[in-house]
Design brief:
By secondary structure, this protein is of the alpha+beta class. The protein has a domain at about 385-495: Sandwich (Substrate Binding Domain Of DNAk, Chain A, domain 1), CATH 2.60.34. Helix content is about 40%, strand content about 30%. The chain contains 16 helices and 27 strands. A hairpin with a 3-residue loop joins strand 1 (about 15-20) and strand 2. Helix 6 (about 215-230) runs antiparallel to helix 8 (about 285-310), helix 14 packs antiparallel against helix 15 and helix 14 packs parallel to helix 16 (about 600-620). It starts with a helix and ends with a helix. The protein binds adenosine-5'-diphosphate (ADP) and magnesium ion (MG). The site of magnesium ion (MG) has 6 residues, from loops.
Amino acid sequence: MSNKQDANRQASFRPIVGIDLGTTNSAVAYIHKGKPEIVPNPSSKRIIPSVVLIDLQGQVIVGEDARAACVAMPDRTVAAVKRHIGSAERIPIAGQALLPQEISALILKELKSYVDAHFGPGEKEAVITVPAYFTDEQRRATKQAGELAGFMVERIINEPTAAALAFGLAHLEEDRHVLVYDLGGGTFDVSVVEMMSGLLEVKTSNGNSQLGGEDFDWKIVDWLADQMIAEYDVDPRQDLRAKALLKDAAEKAKITLSAEETALISLPLVTVQDDRPLGIETELTRSQFVALIEPFLSETMTCLRNVLQDAGLQAGDIGEILLVGGSTRIPRVRELIRQYLGREPRTDIHPEEAVALGAAVQAGLKSGALSDSGLVATDVAPFSMGIAVLTHWKNRSVRPGSFHIIIPRNTTIPVTRSDSFYTTADYQTSASIEIYQGEHEWVKHNHRLGEFLLEGIPANEAGAEEIEVTYRYNLNGILEVTAQCVSTGKAMTVTVQDALNRESQEAFAASASRLEALFNQSAENESEPDSDDAEDEWEIDGVLAGTEEEDAETDWPTVLHSEAAALLTRAQNLLSDLAPNDRTLLQKTIDSLQAAIQGEDIDRLRELIDQATDTLIDLEV
Ligand code: ADP
Ligand code: MG
């Protein structure tokens, strides 16, 4: 290549980043010297917890510090928001009610700050990953989150496809079928990918967008709660802080059980009843844990079987297994897959980084940074899409609500398919187009994507008017539907996305101003909210006024108790690692803190919390 070409290449090169916006953790990557690399945060961390905190000053904090605040400030933190994305449900945080995509935008904004620090400020494009099994709304909401965060969202791609891309770039010469099993915190996907001399073709995809490590944690929480109910007749899950504390302990125990046979769960103070601290101390064994989560794991294995069957492959045809997502560190998961596929999964895949790295590969293919690599990738629609129609049922009655598939699942994307339908009533002048995705023959068991009314059909006998319905499923996995009355041949086309767009543009503007207000509030948290803001239904007076109100309303003894409990847990975890002298010192601290928790003297408790904090800081280094 000549220097001139090089210069042209440089000039046309735009950095596009790849983002894994995970339920539990998020990461951002880019292509550097032909390879994907993670963009670390200012503390050199490569992945950050997908947790948002709005602190007492109204400051938005994302990542590790937000995660650390989950137990102490459960009403000011939001974790696992991805489980709600695509719904209109508002998520309470610090007295406000934000949409899931707004919370996600805060996480993406944090990632964008790392990108800006790396590349300098200015417009950035991004490829953002979603679970293959995400619906249309979930994809749109994710795209919107990216835009709210200030990215130009170049592409939404499927997570297992991204993981395969990262692998594919490093193994261009190999021809084989690769199985990607991605079990993260909130979602599960499994895909079969065929690699042929640099052509990477997703054959089939399956999964469940509501199954992951979070469910395992909650199973343990329920198991712990049952024990507390049996012992004290109190359900700790009723107390927000106790619930957060148990969830935290449950996740820790789960992670311990990936390395050890038993995990000790010791929480001296979970909740308070009649001024009495209630705690729990118990042991969870690996086999008990496996029994708790076995139904979830069986479901993932059913998906795995289906994905192979859809691809027309046998277990022995799989040449490589990629395990992605933190939950694949669970030994039982690996064991089930090994047993079924009869081979060892690869061990050189980083379960938490593979998706972000693959998103960067997709970004590199787009930006030109990888145009010489010879890598080409295609993906599939993971579910069938179609419309509701009338059907003759058992040759007797006519029934509405039958699912007519227009795009079958596992069709390579992008794809456009049309089908013809006919009026069912005499002189019918309009037809309702109800759009669904799923695999069931009746629409009520499938997922509804939307509906619109096609009007202006000439009045005619039943069956005389033909309506052509066209589905376009694009590379982002987003669907556009068009319906046209054939006899008039005129522009009687309605596109769902347009209709939705008008509404969503307004919603987008509202979200953008809400986020702006959030940042303005945190910047000016000393000043009073102005009266205009107060009239806006979204401008909940929480954060600004909250600093003072919080103080007045906060139940300080409870806050102190949970703070003390968190310290006790930290101290107890540390004990076994200490030298004898330090251990004696810490044991004393624990004893006096425990005594203060049981006592009535709040000032004494506060004092001991400070002391214990200092001792822990000294000992933890
Ligand atoms: P996501 O894609 O949802 O952001 P990750 O791939 O980061 O998720 O995985 C997070 C999930 O993995 C969490 O539920 C976490 O508890 C779980 N996890 C992380 N490490 C382990 C481990 N060693 N054993 C079991 N589960 C783990
Ligand atoms: Mg993930």
